[in-house]
Specification:
mainly alpha, 10 helices, 88% helix
Length: 295
């Protein structure tokens, strides 16, 4: 009885973990409404899986598991969360890839203790640990990568998608992986290395593009700051011109008064004083180089 409870707890944990990781990568807002909808969705899927397990047995249920779990999760992300289908499918493929570490932990625990129940317990513990690590270190940056552009999303989801297809084709629908053939053993290392080099090339191109955009942004920022400085200078010149106009009105009024009263000597003395003051504040130009003139 306890072994059966542990086994079905593992099945529910696998469903919950995979779906939770998928909606996290898709960027589900953390609201009460979304949590309730997600919980109700998971319960329906689990009940549906139990029905098929009862009617068709484990072998049939495992073979149609993509239709019972993976596809509904992608549909939930696309229709309920209103995310693009590309992001929905990518999130589903990535969540399937994230299920492999808990599966490996469960396998190791089962082999160490020679117990199927410990395999299930190890899987559940591994899923909890994996979910914590993903939420803390991976989800946010991965979401930014998938939402940046279609190319980035394809680059991020290509490897998980190929692994998904290979895993089901080689372990579920056929026994290709378990035959121990050389092609089967070397396929995943070949695929991993190929995607690694493709990722490096595309990532380099993407970083170059981002660097070019950053340089253009810096140039625009510099031009904006220069324009702001020029506007400030023009504003200061306008204020200075207004002050000069005000002073000139006073000078002309005084000159007009001296001329009307025929105080010619005082008028000449005032003009000499004004000219000497103007010469004192006028910069001396030694050459055409403005820097030398300032020094």
């Amino acid at each position: 009885m306890i072994a059966t409870i542990i086994e079905f707890s593992r099945y529910f944990a696998a469903l919950l973990f995979g779906a939770a990781v998928a909606v996290s990568f898709a960027g589900m807002p953390r609201t009460r409404k979304n949590y309730l909808a997600f919980g109700f969705f998971i319960v329906i899927l689990f009940v549906l899986q139990l029905v098929f397990l009862r009617l068709g047995g484990m072998e049939i249920t495992v073979k149609i598991y993509p239709l019972l779990s993976h596809l509904p999760v992608a549909v939930f992300i696309a229709l309920y969360l209103k995310r693009p289908w590309l992001i929905a499918l990518t999130s589903m493929f990535v969540s399937f890839l994230c299920c492999q570490p808990p599966r490996w932990i469960g396998t190791v625990a089962g082999d160490v203790f020679d117990s199927v129940s410990m395999n299930h317990v190890g899987y559940i513990a591994g899923a909890l640990l994996m979910y914590y690590l993903l939420q803390k270190y991976v989800v946010q940056s991965s979401r930014h990568l998938t939402e940046r552009s279609v190319k980035s999303c394809l680059l991020f989801g290509a490897m998980p998608a190929f692994y998904y297809v290979f895993d089901y084709a080689a372990t579920v629908y056929t026994d290709f992986m378990y035959r121990g053939t050389r092609a089967a053993v070397q396929f995943m290392p070949f695929l991993t290395s190929a995607f690694y080099f493709v990722f490096v090339l595309l990532y380099y191109a993407e970083t170059q593009k981002q660097a070019r955009l950053q340089r253009e942004r810096d140039m625009l920022d510099t031009q904006l700051r220069l324009a702001q400085t020029e506007f400030a200078s023009l504003r200061q010149l306008r204020q200075n011109a207004a002050a000069y106009r005000h002073d000139m009105r006073h000078h002309f009024a005084l000159l007009q008064g001296l001329a009307s009263e025929e105080h010619l000597e005082e008028l000449k003395e005032y003009l000499r004083t004004a000219r000497s003051d103007m010469d004192a504040i006028t910069p001396i130009h030694f050459c055409e180089n403005e820097t030398v003139n300032l020094i």
